[in-house]
Design goal:
The chain is of the alpha/beta class and 512 residues long. The chain is 30% helix and 24% strand.
Length: 512
């Protein structure tokens, strides 16, 4: 063993365990260079460094069309999950203040929201996370370069600083995790000049005021939800359907609740142009796709949430022969996150057919690092990844939608158990619970394996996370019924669900 401690191998003490690692650097500057400092790229780089590899990370934020820029950490930290959830919480607190009066709290005077106070607090928290990521990289001896990275060949990365300085790095392996950025519509006059995206909304110094949100993705609905919740006059313009790719019955419940909550919807509408008036207001012209009628209204802000584009164009991948999906622009990857070119890997939002979710990118990055370091052969399992849409009434899900389950197994091959329920918290507050609903989609035959689980209600993410574990263990409907619920909670309703859609019986929960 002493001989192994010399030459190409060395012992490292990691988390109180001795791990044998190989010095792979050889003729390269680094064992691994990661291009992109989002959640996945950071997780991959830190894991690789902890396993003994010499690692560098390049990260650079190209300012948005409005000039918004931010620090290390990628979309989730700066313009996604983190600020979104905090602003969602601000909106929930506004609803809680209204409920509080029914619970006996004496609240004198009008209650109003101050955007500036909220925005400063959220932005300060994000900046603290930016700093924390830099410290972590330093502590784990990962070299961080605030540079725009591009690939020269399968072992060479060029870094370009803001000042135009070039740095060349060579690496045994290169990982691309540059993620994506919001799209602007290219065929609508005034869209770019006068519009915002999710890259901007969280960094506004003043209130966006009366806002039109164009799009019906989860990003669009989440932003519209918290804007309504903090008191903005908010309209969502939907071309076709809401939450494409999600269970459509659940999507309908989410938007029904939002309408009751105060968000306006312009259904089947397509924006035509955006003009800035002399008053400073934005006049939006759109067409009702059913009637063909043209309509106009004025707004203070227009937020485009019409999809995201992968950050692949400036990477030089075409010159290297890295295969991209021509329609999406994403990198085609294998089960091990490898691209079509040896030694180049990609995962996260930039990978074709990968969920655009932070936790999947983090886990995939760690597993890839372990494989590259020779410590594991485990691949990322992308099946049954749970997620939650943080709309005013949250929607959590894991597994297949009812539509997808029916497509795969046939209508007679599935059984759907469902229930409408009323959260106890809604009773005293006299809140409408018409859209609080859950359903469990199962195979109809045999043990009735659970194929999909869907839940709209308070704290949907917290509820869904626990049940997602069951999917990894092959949960069946009988397992669900054998689980004793926690009373009184919303989550317990999932353990009691027994009415099938097929039966046609009333699915409203009454009593305990």
């Amino acid at each position: 063993m002493a001989a192994l401690c010399r030459g190409r191998y060395r012992w490292k003490r990691i988390n109180c365990f001795h791990v044998l690692t190989r010095n792979l650097t050889g003729k390269y500057d680094f064992d691994l260079v990661v291009v992109g400092g989002g959640s996945g790229g950071l997780a991959c780089s830190k894991e690789a460094a902890q396993l003994g590899l010499k690692v560098a990370v390049l990260d650079y934020v190209e300012p948005s069309a409005k000039g918004t820029k931010w620090g290390l950490g990628g979309t989730c930290v700066n313009v996604g999950c983190i600020p979104k959830k905090l602003m969602h919480q601000a909106a929930l607190l506004g609803t809680a203040v209204k409920d509080a009066k029914k619970y006996g709290w004496q609240i004198s005077g009008p209650v109003c929201h101050d955007w500036v106070t909220m925005a400063e607090a959220v932005q300060n928290h994000v900046r603290s996370l930016n700093w924390g990521h830099r410290v972590q990289l330093q502590d784990k001896k990962v070299k961080y370069l605030n540079m725009n990275g591009s690939l020269l060949d399968q072992h060479t990365v060029k870094g370009l600083s803001k000042a135009g300085k070039e740095t060349i790095l060579t690496a045994r392996n290169i990982v691309v995790t540059t993620g994506g950025r919001p799209r602007y519509p290219t065929n609508i006059p005034g869209a770019v000049e006068h519009g915002l995206t999710s890259d901007d909304i969280f960094w506004l110094k003043k209130s966006p005021g009366k806002t039109l949100v164009v799009g019906a993705s989860y990003v669009a609905l989440e932003c519209a939800g918290f804007l309504t919740g903090v008191g903005m006059d908010t309209t969502v313009m939907v071309r076709s359907i809401a939450l494409r790719g999600f269970d459509q019955q659940m999507a309908g419940l989410v938007t029904d609740y939002m309408e009751a909550y105060g968000t306006k919807f312009a259904w089947r509408s397509v924006p035509k142009r955006v003009d800035k008036l002399s008053s400073g207001a934005l006049q939006v012209t759109w067409v009702d796709s059913l009637t063909g009628n043209e309509q106009k209204d004025t707004f203070d802000s227009v937020l485009w949430a019409v999809g995201r584009a992968p950050e692949t164009k400036a990477l030089g991948l075409d010159k290297l022969g890295v295969q991209l999906n021509k329609q999406t622009g994403k990198i085609v990857v294998g089960a091990d996150e490898s691209s079509s070119v040896p030694n180049i890997y990609a995962f996260g939002d930039i990978g074709e057919d990968r969920p655009e979710l932070t936790p999947t990118a983090i886990k995939a990055g760690k597993l890839l690092a372990r494989r590259l370091a020779g410590h594991s052969t485990e691949l990322m399992n992308y099946d049954n990844v749970a997620t939650t849409v943080f709309t005013p009434l949250e929607y959590g899900c894991v597994g297949l939608s009812e539509e997808e389950a029916e497509m795969r197994h046939g209508k007679d091959g599935i059984e759907v158990y469902h229930a409408f329920y009323k959260p106890l918290e809604f009773t005293v507050a006299e809140r409408d619970a018409s859209q609080c609903y859950l359903k469990v989609v199962c195979e109809r035959a045999g043990d009735q394996k659970i194929l999909g689980l869907h839940f709209t209600g308070p704290n949907a993410g917290e509820v869904t996370q626990g049940f997602a574990l069951g999917f990894q263990c092959g949960a069946t409907y009988s397992h669900l019924l054998q689980t004793v619920g926690i009373h009184p909670t919303c989550a317990e309703e999932l353990t009691k669900v027994h009415i099938t859609k097929r039966s046609g019986l009333d699915a409203m929960v009454t009593g305990c």
